[in-house]
Amino acid sequence: MSASENQRLKEIYEFGPFRVDPEKEILLRAGEPVQLTPKTFQILLVLVRHNKEVVTKDDLMKAVWPDTFVEEANLSRNIFMLRKALGESPQDHQYILTVPGRGYRLAESVRLLPEQELSIVAANHSKVQVQVEQTKPWGWISVAVLLLAVAGGTFRFLWHRTTVLGEKDTVVLADFANSTGNPVFEGTLRQGLAVQLEQSPFLSLVSDDRIHQTLKLMGRPVDAPLTPDTAREVCERTGSAAVLEGSIAGLGSQYVLGLRAKNCRTGEVLDEEQVQATRKEDVLNALSQIVTTFRARVGESLATVEKHDTPLQEATTPSLEALKAYSEAWKIAFSTGPAAAVPLLQGAIHVDPNFAMAHAFLGRVYGDIWKPVLSAESTSKAYELRNRASDRERFFIVLSYDLQVRGNLGKAQETAELWAQTYPRDRVPHGFLSWISQEEGKYEKSIEESQKAIGLDPDFTPGYVNLAWAYLFLDHPEEAENTLQRASERKLEIPELLVLRYYLSFLQGDQAGMKRAAALSQEKPGAEDWVTDEEASVEAYSGRLRNARRMSRRAVDLARQSDQRERAAMYEAGEAVREAFFGNVPEARRSAIAAMELSKGRDVEYGAAVALILAGDSSRSQTLANDLEKRFPEDTLVRFTYLPVLRSLFALHSGEPSTAIDVLQIAVPYDLAIPGSWSGFFGNLYPVYARGEACLALHQGAEAAAEFQKILDHRGIVASDPIGALAHWQLGRAYAMQGDGAKAKGAYQDFLTLWKDADSDIPVLKEAKAEYAKLQ
């Protein structure tokens, strides 16, 4: 190092009562440290080094955020934080002056300490040698270490060896050791630490759901405390590289935070960081400080540390109480279920209404428990507050908004791909991409993304769910079965896995498997009503409508008993669609009206609208279609599936089959896609079925046959939807129109065989039997 570079590192500046040490990144006021975030300190340093000169906003942003685009609001927020730290009031800007239209300048004269004073400062910092009695949580901490932490912001032991984590290593986050006696830190600091560490594209934390799965395999409760010993065992079982142990201890009225990284196999300490907070309110800022230092020292590049380093108070909330409620919500959502997290998240939002991720998580929870309207409201609020989040969490908020509110699959895909590119070790964007691909009908892509997600986290349940569905939709039941078996071996359990098992058994004609899945669903909260509705759909598929109605009533009742109005509405809508396709007009109208009384959700309105137009109520169906168009102008499914299907049915009802085919052209790329209504077991391949009916109305037998055959060729997609059964009948009509009696008879026979045990009074069955008799 040259003499000039060495001198540059030894700069210490003074202005007013403040001393600025660039090397240690610390600001002192009358010898006491002033808490600043790294970015705020850098802004101060630029202003100090320009000593009363005006620094433009553009130059400040380029100096503090090089090679990164940031909004001016980010600079303004940091200036506000700097002024607050310096003790300025809103009316009196004693130190930082705003130059309108230009930028900012320091009002005080700056003095560079002479070399002899630098030597005194250095000597004073190096002569602290006092030892004290051991205290918790890390008994060997000495006053020398604590004072050095005060002087330097964070302290790294001189004997530390430069051991770094690799780009493929994962780490386990243990519980924070809290010896302060203050319960507000319990769970809160671990959650804050996770948020800060997850900003890193380099580090990869073992997810909480994977930790819970590992604890189950260890024979421990999923909410067992992650003590250092337990965390180390989890670390070894997950093949991870290190355990991160956090601690907080009291020092008079102040707090000392520590972070230690240990090799989980050898116990070797890989890194050690400490920082002091003067007040409880400064603890979150101190935690941000310690994580920033830790990230740089375990191998992450300074470029990504600086680019993705939102202070914790900005990434979450400045309120420890709100963050505690949020952290408890995360814990209970995994151990008990998402519904139990709702009051905790509402409590966090009550304490801090601007807590963006609390709104976002609440939106996710509402989505998980089938409350789409509430989910959209919470997600929209999170989107408004998205700049109060870290980069990674902002991806989650924007993607959730794209899907839950806009319904714009193209935008959602762009966001998810950028998320995956920015955070290549994150499984979540690949999980979203696999789901988005299914709603676009791209099942090979869904498989690819699911496998990437599972590769990054072998206990990522949504990865197995999406993978199994994709295999089923491609008519690969063996691969789907293998996927479900892998999930079972890892003891992954969510209601949708039972729904998948029932669905798979139905496609394979496995009656015993269907009964097992139905029996198991009675033991799993959130599964029984869904599987019961699937049983109703299967009964209707074979024409056993009386049984189907009984099962539907039970599914609706179960859903309503557990306050799942949206699920109950979906079951009513599915029943309405079945009854309408089979020609039972009064029952179709009754169920459609019941569904709309329970929910105004997108998919419920679509099902009700389909049922009503098939039942001859075009006026009410048109009203629902208009509402969908108005409320969901960007929604991909509404624009390219729901509205085209409804408009084609309106045209057919009006005797305009050519128009019906024309309006369905826009739906062609989404013919094989899975709409949101599939969870009510209706809606798949409806553009294809409507196009086939329009071709029949135009006496285009060959074209109609091709459309109905497409439905029969994709049984994995159509499954127990009523059009799967009716496609056999419609195919017979198409062949008869072409004059091919043999094929027509074969198709009619397939339908009548499928419905051999059907209720005899179903209108379409009577019609099919009459048409078949004419072929004899």
Give a verbal description of the structure:
It is built from 38 helices and 14 strands. With 776 residues, it is an alpha+beta fold. The protein has 3 domains: 3-116, Winged helix-like DNA-binding domain superfamily/Winged helix DNA-binding domain (Arc Repressor Mutant, subunit A), CATH 1.10.10.10; 139-315, Rossmann fold, CATH 3.40.50; 505-775, Tetratricopeptide repeat domain (Serine Threonine Protein Phosphatase 5, Tetratricopeptide repeat). The radius of gyration is 32 Å and the shape is elongated. The protein starts with a helix and ends with a helix.
Number of helices: 38
CATH architecture assignment name of the largest domain: Alpha Horseshoe
Helix proportion range: 55-70%
- Radius of gyration over C-alpha positions, nearest whole angstrom: 32 Å
Give the CATH H-level superfamily of the largest domain: Tetratricopeptide repeat domain
Q: What does the main sheet amount to? A: 6 strands, mixed
Rounded to the nearest angstrom, the distance between the terminal CA atoms is 100 Å
- CATH class of the largest domain equals Mainly Alpha
Morphology call: elongated
Question: What structural category do the secondary elements indicate?
Answer: alpha+beta
The name CATH uses for the topology of the largest domain is Serine Threonine Protein Phosphatase 5, Tetratricopeptide repeat
Q: In total, how many beta strands? A: 14
Low-confidence stretches: 1-9, 115-163
